[in-house]
Model the fold of this input.
Amino acid sequence: MEAVVPLILVIAAAAGFYLWYSAYLRERSLRRVDVASTGLRGMASGASDEPAVFPPRYRLLAPAAGLTVALAVYFLTSLPFEYAVAFGILAAAIAWVFEDWLAARRATEIETQLADAIDLMVGALRAGTGILAALEAAYVEARDPFRSQLRDLIGRIRLGDDPVEAIQSLARRVPLETFRFFATSFSVHWETGGSMAQTLTSIGRTIRDRIEMSRRIQAQSVEVHASVVAVMAISYAVTLIMWRANPGTLEEFLGSSIGTLIAASAVVLQAVGILWISRMSRVRF
Done:
């Protein structure tokens, strides 16, 4: 029985490493796509090393939250060391999910702003303006965070940079699928020619369809998330009721070696479940 907690900790560490490694592989694959797209145009591969600036990620939030909670439980309470480790892992899992949700929310916000800007550009192009004037018209109505990215794009084009390279730089700074799609379509159309308004109309419609699909999937996954929260809340509520009814027996059980192992293992499994459900409900195209 004493080997249960180390086994659970190993499983939790393996799950955390798997999530991190999957995100790392996904980021590397997207960078290779950028290198390939720039290589087709004969540009140096070092141009793809431009760092991404949006959405900002706070990768240290999860380990910092876990370490803080673990130290607080260990030094500020009389609970055994196993409880400190278990609650630290649970706090790290919750912080990881919260940071990922915050990044997804910001990504949806800037993607919606991109779709709105494309609609304004289409109206300006159909009115007879040029591409740069259409970008400036979209910039006037844009809001942050997309406004700052659009300002940089317009500034680079005005300073004489290649418009295709400038738009590819935007896709590297904001490494989202919608921005890559916009940059690729813009680059191909710039090289081949044709009606830019019609192309942008198709791009804007596709981006809005992707956003709508993502929101529908997220809305359907709310039930699953609510079920997970309810199950966790019930487990702690039952524990509280048992403690109020018979505090001596419950404290003796949780303070024993077997009770400590069981309770700590249950908390760690809750953390693993939170990460698993978050992973399964993530929207990907």
